[in-house]
Amino acid sequence: MSTLSLNKASPDPSGGADPLARYRRSAHWKPLEYLFWLLPVAAYFLFPGNYLLLSQIAITGLFALSLDLIFGYAGLISLGHAAFFGVGAYTVGFLGTNGLGDPILGLVLAAVFAALLGFLSSFLLLRGNDLSRLMVTLGVALMLYELANKFTSITGGVDGMPGIEVKPILGLFDFDMFGRVGFVYSVVVLFVLFWFARRLVHSPFGQSLRGIHMNALRMPALGVPVNRRLVKIYTIGAAYAGVAGALLAQTNQFVSLDVLSFQRSADLLLILILGGAGHLYGGIIGAVVFVVINYFLSDMNPQYWQFWLGLILVLIVLFARGGILGTARQWMDSRRRARAHSRTGEAS
Amino acid sequence: MSAVLQTRDLVRTFGAFVVTDRVNLSVAAGARHALIGPNGAGKTTLINLLTGYLEPTAGSVILMDQDVTRMPQHDRCRRGLVRTFQINQLFKDMTVLESVALAVSERQGLGTQWWRPLARRGEVVDEAAAILERLKLLPDALETTRNLAYGRQRLIEIALALALEPKVLLLDEPAAGVPTGESQELFETIAQLPRDVTILLIEHDMNLVFRFADRISVLVSGALLVEDTPDVIAHHPRVKEVYLGESHV
Amino acid sequence: MTIFFDGVAFGMLLFLISVGLSVTLGLMNFINLAHGAFAMLGGYACVVLLNRYGVPFLATLPVAILVPALAGIVLEKTLYRRLYAASELDQVLFSIGLVFMAVATAHYFFGAQQQPLHLPDFLQGQIHLPGMDVGVYRLFLIVVGLVVAFGLQWSVIKTPFGAKLRASVDNQRVARGLGIDVNRVFSLTFALGSALAGLGGAMGVEMLGLDPEFPVKYLVYFLIVVTVGGSGNILGSLYAAILLGVADVAGKYYIPQIGAFIIYAVMVAALIFRPHGLFGRSHN
User: Fold this and answer.
1) What chains are in contact with A, requiring at least 3 Cβ pairs below 8 Å?
2) SS (H, E, C) C191-260
3) B119 contacts A26? CB cut-off 8 A
């Protein structure tokens, strides 16, 4: 017992008389986070010839963020998250080819339709077991792919939907051919949605999702209607993915069938695992790594690329399960505890 | 003395196997009611039926004069029926404070709030801290659950239950896996709970049971053998038989 | 009626390929999304022998069975075994990684095109039965499928290995305590499942096609068979596979507009009405 009271009595190194101060401040923005969000700003000035690539990073990051919400936080695995991405992209496509090219409208409607699909499919997701969950997510995405493939006259099929018109953002900022406006636009949307997601994750709702992920059995015994919460987060995650798809369609002014492909869903899983799920930033970091490497290896035979992707995924699962951020955090935690042990060792 | 929790002919079968056999349990308001019986008698199953984790094959569960047989677990919990688990069911990667704060925030009905961080909600954090203090868990507040000793983790299990401000508390072997010295403390904490909290306790340690309970139900092979005061139970021949085998008088 | 037979034949192929996945899931609780890769391996083995070396079709089948079986044993011992205790998520991610690698490897060695396969003469043509003409090949598939299905079911019930298998599925710990070498049961079962998948893949080249995307293309089908049939349930997989095969073929024929969506309708219906499979799981 004496060592325990010693812990309590020892001063909190962060300088508060309240030993729980560290927890109370846990939702504050950390310095490293400010640094992180300066990176896109820096990139804007440092890489003026690569705005299209940078936009792709931001968009993929948003897409990965959407998966992190449902998977990293709520623990729902999806083999077909591209379904929502595709819905968002095609929404913009249809609007754009019918004179309704306002970008903000496109984002909003993309989010709405993706959310609707997410909401409807969430009920199937919650019935049955883990295996059927995989099946449902895979099946929904495949079904949409088939649907889009069937109506090639409308969707343009594999060759893509031609002639999507995107009007200037807020009537002021016209998309330029270098992708500069597109990049700023993508980063702003990513940041705003990230900010909302960050608040959500630290909120009571977000914490309950963590609880569901860690111990779904316990949650009803805490008075939590688990399915209702999961439906909510799945819908939100779908909406986010829809916005990401819309951004892609708007910045490229092009949509083709691959926005709905299994490859896209599987790559997304890899990206999130690579960066580390459940940290919010993991998806974005994974996106940076993935898109950049993909870019440099783009002249390589795509089959080689796929092989190494598969191998990386296998190795991560076997050896570095937490991904980049997870492993980093583990390392920092063990260092912190080693330091704390040596400190109490000295104190006693 | 009205019954705050009761079952009527509660039955649960798994195929041909009858795990709960027409149980008529009645727990009075404010009681310190113990449920004992040999291993495999179906005590945990009964708790699972009471809380809604399991659906009965037949019969009903009445909580505070309301038939809750069809009511889902989380709604029963909201009405004040709280349980602990025989094997710790905790949030291994959350800190102790995070876990209890989560329970408090759910009880306060904040579960759908998605804007303000939980950590910034003083009312929640303070209340969680108070509960931790009561159970002497405050020193470990910022420690991750999986790094704590099993006995300490057991206290978190209790803390979660207390955070929900139970009206009827079902404790499934709260001292299981806790070293003897610490289990005394645990029981003192439970004994200090106010009388408006009704407690139904599954326990194997007979010393603790007889010190704590004012009423005891004996469950054998899924059926209620007898329900009475500790004195009567202590001298009941059938109970002795069940626990000690054939009576060796 | 020919449609029905086609559907049943298709179902038999699905069964052959999926039964290994079902048993692996029921036995080790391992979700192996890469299972289709073993079928693909069997298919390519058959095609290579047939097209490049002129080996007769029937003679390629043993190879198509053995190669995936060996691959299965090796992979199970070296990789899969490490993940039996891992979370479902990890297993899914791992098997997706394997799928990527398998697909890429197939692309590399064989190119993206469909592999041509010329069935031997005796399997071509039709048999004239009263009331209908049945394709010989289809009949062959159905017969083999039924033989395998009932053979499996018989051996699971009657043979010592089958008893060990059932014991291990029911309760691993107790089975070990009884002296059953559960690890060996796992390895052999995995190998058997992969072998059957290989057989299905080889026999199915004519009907299912064979290209590097095979494991992904048919993944939903396999998952539906296992989910609807109940994991670990051999006869359940058979019935589910036949149901799915007939529904798919009939759908594509009678209502070509939405024929491709029939399997998704089946999937959704299965989940709505029987989320734990039409025939239940062999254990929880």
Assistant:
1) B, C
2) HHHHHHHHHHHHHCHHHHCCCCCHHHHCHHHHHHHHHHHCCCCHHHHHHHHHHHHHHHHHHHHHCCCCHH
3) yes
Kindly state whether A214 is in contact with chain B, defined as any CB-CB distance less than 8 angstroms: yes
Q: Check CB contact under 8 Å for A204 and B111.
A: yes
**What string of pLDDT tens digits covers the 249 residues of chain B?**
578 999 999 999 988 889 999 999 999 999 999 999 888 888 999 999 999 999 999 999 999 999 999 999 999 999 999 999 998 999 999 999 999 999 999 999 998 999 999 999 999 999 999 999 988 889 999 999 999 988 889 889 999 999 999 999 999 998 887 877 777 778 888 888 888 899 999 988 888 888 889 999 999 888 998 898 988 888 888 888 777 654 334
Mutate to test the interface with A, among C89, C110, C214 (most CBs of A within 10 A): C89
Over residues C221-270, the pLDDT tens digits come to 998 898 888 877 888 889 989 989 998 888 888 887 777 788 888 777 77
- Interface contact flag, C88 A124, Cβ < 8 Å: no
| Distance from the C221 Cα atom to the nearest Cα atom in chain A, whole angstroms | 9
Average confidence (pLDDT) over A308-315:
90
Domain count, chain B: 1
Between B90, B94, B97, which is nearest A20 by CB? B97
Total domains in chain A come to 1
C5-8 — which CB contacts under 8 Å span 24+ positions? C5/C132, C5/C134, C5/C135, C5/C138, C5/C139, C5/C142, C6/C135, C6/C138, C6/C249, C7/C242, C7/C245, C7/C246, C7/C247, C7/C248, C7/C249, C7/C250, C8/C138, C8/C142, C8/C242, C8/C245, C8/C246
* Residues C264, A129: C-beta atoms closer than 8 Å: no
Domain boundaries, chain C: 2-102+173-273
Query: What is the complex's ipTM, to 2 decimals?
Result: 0.90
- Indicate whether B151 belongs to any domain: no
* A167 Cα to chain B: minimum distance (Å): 33
Is A102 contained in some domain? yes
Q: Do A127 and C275 touch (CB under 8 A)?
A: yes
Q: Which domain holds residue B72?
A: 3-89+164-244
Single pTM value for the model: 0.88
